[in-house]
Amino acid sequence: MPANHRNPHGTPSAELPAPAFAVLTVSALNRLAREALESALPLLWVGGEISNLVRAPSGHVYFTLKDAGAQVRCAMWRNRAQLLAFRPENGMRVEARALVTLYEARGDYQLNIEALRPAGIGNLFEAFNRLKERLAAEGLFDPAARRPLPRFPRGVGIVTSPSAAALRDVLSALKRRASHLPVVLYPTPVQGGDAPARLAEALRHAGRRADGDGIDVVLLVRGGGSIEDLWAFNDEALARAIRACPLPVVSGVGHETDFTIADFAADLRAATPTGAAELASAGFHAAHLELAGLAPRLQRALQRRLDAAGQRVDRAALRLVHPRERLRQAAMQVETQQERLRGALSRRLERAGHGVARLALRLRGGRPPIARAEENVSALARRLERAAAERLQREHLRLARLSSHLQHLAPQAVLARGYAIARDADGRILHSTAGVEEGDAVSVQLADGRLDTRVATITR
Questions:
Q1: Full DSSP string of 242-280
Q2: DSSP-based three-state secondary structure for 12
Q3: Which CATH number fits domain 140-280: 3.90.550.10, 3.40.50.261, 2.60.120.890, 2.60.40.10?
Q4: What is the DSSP code (8-state) at residue 231?
Q5: pLDDT tens for residues 23-39?
Q6: CATH of the domain spanning 26-120
Q7: How many Å apart are CA 35 and CA 33, to the nearest integer?
Q8: Any idea where the Exonuclease VII large subunit C-terminal domain is (predicted)?
């Protein structure tokens, strides 16, 4: 650096020495910082309050985790976010299992969230996630294995406690939407230590009794509560019983934000018990709405039919005549036709009489002279006889000439003049030497007989 170089404050400075190591780029620095953070801090749990939550179209979730004294940015990728059993919201206190890292593009320190649970649930939520992940890996929650609900079920089975408010909600919804639909209750406790086993047995009993009880769908319902209250529905045996049930199962456990293992195993999840009843009766409700929409159309179509029929009746009434009047009109028509027929017949007979008279006059005036006609006929007969005799003589002469000429051209006459007909062994006439070999049998037809020969030589 030149000696007269000035520093940023404008004062002269001495020449700076060259750096003893390579200068890092910002990207390299951020990468080193990220690697140092990730290697120094293990996967850990961090508790705090959610704020600035954003759900990206890609499925990733971004938020800030804060407490009274600090905050840190967090990112939860889609493959982790879609496994959440609850919906994170701003202001919710949570515990996050996270990896401390650094977003290199901006140099922001952040947490990559691996798992998330509401604060205070602790071991229960962890057990829920472990069971959910294990059953999902087995394919127990495969959407392709879910059975569709019948549109018009014969009856509905309900697995719940007889004293549960959820049962009243379900019955009220079914009565409102499909009051004719039979309902069969399979009573079981929905809370307590033996509830999971009792729930699974009730489902199996409903499957066995389906034909006899006349049900086509089973509703597994319970009202809302804490995670501890709903824990009976997070049982592995219950989940397997749901999948083994021969009928489609609709789960309606808790409220909209409550999720249980039973929800994931069921063929269809409803946000509430009332929602489960609405799903089971959706076909009847939709049919009722369709019928309500078709009623005005049917009424209009019926009115159009009635109007058209009325018009046809009116037109027929105009054409309708009393039988006595029709007979009177027919008699008048017959009389009129008789008069016309008599007049036409008289006129025709009169014309025919005139014609006969005219023909008689013509016949008397046009009688031919018979004697002169007889003479003409006799003369013509004589001329015809002479002409026939002359024609017959000419034809005899012509026939003689043709016969002589034909006799001259007959095959026998040709053979008599020294010609011959050669045939091969199959009797076919030989027109040339082609196809004939030495030693072949050949017959030669002459005028007075036939020679059977064999070919000695062939000269072509």
A1: HHH-SS-EEEEES-TT---HHHHHSSEE-SSHHHHHHHH
A2: strand
A3: 3.40.50.261
A4: G
A5: 889 888 889 988 888 88
A6: 2.40.50.140
A7: 6
A8: 140-453
